[in-house]
Design goal:
The complex is a heterodimer of chains A (298) and B (210). Chain A has a 7-stranded mixed sheet with strand order 2-1-3-4-8-7-9, with helices on both faces. Chain A is an alpha/beta fold. In chain A, helix 2 crosses helix 8 and helix 5 crosses helix 6. Chain A has a single domain, classed as Rossmann fold, CATH 3.40.50. Chain A has 10 helices and 9 strands. In chain A, strand 7, helix 8 and strand 8 form a beta-alpha-beta unit. Chain A is globular and about 60 Å long. By secondary structure, chain B is an alpha/beta fold. Helix content of chain B is 34%, strand content 15%. In chain B, the strands form 2 sheets. A 7-stranded mixed sheet of chain B has the order 2-1-7-6-5-3-4, with helices on both faces. Chain B has a domain of 136 residues: Response regulator (Rossmann fold, 3-Layer(aba) Sandwich), CATH 3.40.50. Chain B is built from 6 helices and 9 strands. Classes of the chains: A alpha/beta (298), B alpha/beta (210).
Chain lengths: 298, 210
């Protein structure tokens, strides 16, 4: 899809419900500097969602979708889990894969898009939960990194199988007791960020979604690096408030606790030297664009 | 040959897929009426008669004709508007396939996951799907046949829909125009539209303007 295709046929435009007219007029397609600050002031690519009230995953979705550098040329690959309940509501192309094989699907899709659209930049982004990424799909996840497939993998880490009642996952913290894991987890939380780095990811970030600026920066970095270098990985802590016994309004506090000093989700970022240099250049380009925009406004 | 007829429902909560009952798709140049393969010309006339005899004839344009993918989509949209004016029929869009929560407004849109809501709310007795991707059209057609008494038609860009009561195949601007011509021909022969009076709902970004 290209942004000039997101138009309504003139002869039928007056029967289209307002939300679609807003999408054409007021969405941020085509603006490479779009970001989380557009949330609430522009037409968002997700509005209604079917997640629980106050679910941090829904916040993560908003920030991720608002920060994609080119949503009109992006295809998401999702997997079974809470995330798969949201994708039908999202105004970005997406594919639902079988549980765990999302990175294999994304590999094929990225190659196919390259053949079909040789002159265009098409971003493929895998977005799956921790069960799909680390347990059931770990093989596919790792193999795509070993093969240096050029796409971004995002893991919404809620540290258990949330929508099936709270079973233990590889990313669950040691000792944690959940409804369907009453004995408590016996081994450590899998260090996925480090595994990603060692498996060939050129850019890795691990963070919570309590700070939208950070989520935006990490996502943009990951996608830009994936275009040029190879696989990238972002692990986002999106706690399941239901399964850890919190109230709707306590998700943010839970994330802030988890990212405080000594917590499981203290912000960490790995990048190769080449990538660091590349990202610095991109930052400077973005700053120059902002400056230009400001002076044009003035 | 199958004895099964693809007729308006309500057939059953889970109506059988017409293909499983032995209904086959038409070849190029043909269409099917209630599962019987007929020459396309005959289907154009039958579709036109159904539209003119209906109290609430309705066209459901889908994403392939609502969105300006290319010039052909725009031309099809123009042809659909002419068809709606000729009958006259309501236009209710199926802009995308999301299951909408908490609910859709059935007066202004239709959704493939619960199309029966739009049919029931507007008391639609004859409808045609144009520009809806096959999988979603099949889903909607079966739900409609299962739970409503609406006569369904499909203007399919591929090989046709066995789950519609009447289906064309290889839809194009020309075929939509031929359907319009068939409606106008019947009208010129004295067949009058039985459609109840209505005002086509129009919308802008603020909401309804008509």
């Amino acid at each position: 899809m290209s942004k000039d295709k997101i138009k309504i046929c003139e002869d039928l435009a007056d029967i289209m419900p307002p939300e679609y007219q807003d999408l054409v007029e007021d969405a941020t397609y085509g603006d490479q500097d779009r970001g989380w600050k557009d949330v609430g002031s522009s037409k968002e690519l997700i509005e209604q969602h079917s997640l629980c009230a106050g679910c941090p995953e829904s916040i993560a979705f908003r920030y991720v979708l608002a920060s994609l550098p080119a949503p009109e040329d992006t295809v998401f690959v999702g997997s079974t889990g809470c995330t798969s309940l949201v994708f039908p509501h999202v105004a970005v192309q997406n594919i639902h894969s079988l549980f765990g094989n999302q990175n294999a699907i994304a590999s094929g899709l990225h190659r196919a898009l390259k053949v079909r659209f040789p002159d265009k930049v098409k971003d493929v982004v895998v977005l799956a939960g921790d069960g799909a990424t680390v347990d059931i799909g770990l093989d596919m996840t790792l193999q795509s990194w070993f093969r240096q497939e050029k796409f971004t993998t995002i893991c919404f880490d809620n540290e258990l199988y949330a929508n099936t009642g709270g079973q233990e996952s590889g990313l669950m913290q040691k000792g944690f007791v959940s409804k369907m894991a009453p004995v408590g987890k016996l081994f450590d939380k899998v260090r996925l960020a480090e595994i990603a780095r060692e498996s060939g990811c050129h850019y890795v970030a691990c963070l919570t979604v309590s700070k939208p600026n950070r989520v935006e920066k990490a996502l943009k970095n990951a996608i830009l690096v994936a275009r040029e270098f190879g696989p990238t990985f972002i692990q986002l802590y999106t706690p399941c408030i239901l399964e850890i016994g919190k109230q709707s309004m306590e998700g943010l506090d839970e994330m802030k606790d988890a990212e405080s000093i000594g917590g499981r989700f203290v912000y960490k970022e790995y990048a190769t030297d080449d990538v660091k240099k590349f990202l610095k250049e991109k930052d400077e380009e973005a700053k120059a664009r902002k400056k230009e925009k400001k002076s044009a406004k003035a | 040959m199958s004895q099964y007829k693809v007729q308006p429902g309500p057939e059953a909560f889970l109506s059988p897929s017409a293909a499983s009952m032995g209904i086959v798709l038409p070849d190029p140049g043909e269409a099917h009426i209630e599962g019987t393969i007929v020459p396309e010309e005959e289907a154009f006339e039958e579709a036109a008669r159904k539209f003119l005899a209906a109290k609430v004839p309705t066209i459901f344009p889908g994403p392939l004709v609502l969105w300006h993918w290319n010039e052909n989509a725009a031309k099809q949209a123009t042809a659909i508007r002419k068809l709606a004016n000729a009958i006259p029929a309501r236009l209710i869009p199926m802009a995308d396939y999301r299951p909408k929560y908490p609910k859709i407004d059935p007066e202004v849109e239709i959704n493939p996951n619960h199309p029966n809501l739009t049919i029931w709310h507007n008391k639609i007795d004859v409808c045609i799907f144009v520009g809806v991707h096959c999988h979603q059209a099949n889903l909607a057609l079966k739900i409609i046949r299962g739970g409503t008494n609406c006569y369904t038609m499909a203007m399919c860009a591929q090989a046709g829909h066995e789950d519609a009561c009447l289906s064309f195949r290889d839809a194009s601007v020309e075929k939509i125009e031929r359907l319009t011509a068939a409606v106008l021909k019947l009208k010129s022969e004295g067949v009058e539209s039985q459609a109840e009076e209505f005002t086509q709902i129009k919308l802008n970004r603020q909401g309804r303007i008509a």
